[in-house]
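Allow me, if you will, to draw on your knowledge of protein folds for a short while. I have a record of one protein: its chain in single-letter code and its fold written as discrete structure tokens. I should value your view on which stretches of the chain appear to form regular backbone elements. Thank you for your consideration; the sequence and its tokens are set out here:
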Amino acid sequence: NKDDIGSRDEPVKIERLWFVARSTTTIIAASATDPTRAAELIPILRRSVFREPGTFGFVAQTSLFGRGFGGSRVIDLDITGPNLEDILEIAREGIRVLNREMPRAGGTQIRPQPGLELGAPEVRVVPDLRRLADNGLSARDLGVTIDIFNDGMRVSEVTVGAKRIDLTLMGTERNVTNTQGIASLPVVTRSGRILPVDNLASVSVTEGPNQIQHLERQRTVTLQIRPAPDIPLETAIDIVRSKVIEPMRAAGFPDGVAMSLSGSADELQNTWQAMITNLLIAMLVVYLVMAILFESFIYPLIIMFSVPLATAGGVAGLVLLNVFTKQSLDMLTMLGFVILIGTVVNNAILLVHQTLFHIRNEGAEVAAAIVEATRNRIRPIFMSTLTSVFGMLPLVVTPGAGSELYRGLGSVVVGGLALSAVLTLLIIPPLLSVASGLLERERGKFAPGTAGEAAPVAAE
């Protein structure tokens, strides 16, 4: 009901609230009656969820291209090593340092994956290698025997008629009914003796992790860090690297334990390199196409001067947008600069092409040709620019639900087109005057019928 949305001066209203509880994770979600105010629910949910001590997690507004519950702004701090207890201790220390350098009160959210508590009951069997060797057994033999009594073990496959049936080896008891029974399981040695498990290994009841995560075959605990909205991702990565990893590494890690960054940290570096490569390729392709069309390498350089002008306009548009709302320089916003490369050169192309037409086809002087080309082309230049700017302006000024994803891209394109349309008319004609005066003079010297031939004489 639209009447239930309320005004901007009223507190945001929740339309639906639901949660899913699992053994290791709880998911809470809510939707606002006004979709454009969904982000205002974030602090409300954070206050209620993280009120409990020791609670970790993320609260964020999901986006169209979001990656998981954390989104695309998640930094993964991986702690790897052979000993789980050492890894958990370093992870707890890492969270303490992160809370000091990037406090939760500022909006930073941290989630360990898996958890930092050893809350799952575990029966740990540690083989005694000396006793096993005395009885002609290996640690694998002991493990296989315990597995057979506990779960059974598939050893082969037999065919009965047209059916294939698994041949499973089991102990006399299908399952161990209590933890104490594992220590009494019989193990047959190679000499035929039967010994209980506790004669060949130490059996203890302890606690273990609910989930074991591996990275490159190493046990791993990942601290997933979601920086505050006002902290750029690159700045957050630098803080984690310089104020968390390096000081803790200098203080010393247990043997085999290491810390490294992954997730958005690696993706940001790879994407940034790919974006720079795409920008350079786009500029090169545009330049070569114009060099072929104008049969010159100088005129395309003049046209390419409009690209820095558009870049300045795109940056100005993004800065102006940040005066009214928060918009970071994300990869979709960077795509706006790629779009500008192929768009803003159109105005300069119109000026250069019309000028060359007047010079080469009509024999006009360079200065007069430039003035005439500017007078003829200024109207289509402003017509195409204004239609593009006003067509994309609603995306920047009055975005709807979900369109904030493209708001930065729109501000870059609008600012770049608007500024380049004005500055192109101020900068391109003077550059064209200098270049055309030299190039067309040289072209006239070697044009057919002008070199090595006498000028025709008019006869009456």
Observations:
- The mean pLDDT is 79.
- The two ends are 93 Å apart (CA to CA).
- Residues 366 and 434 are 9 Å apart (CA to CA).
- The first helix runs from residue 41 to 49.
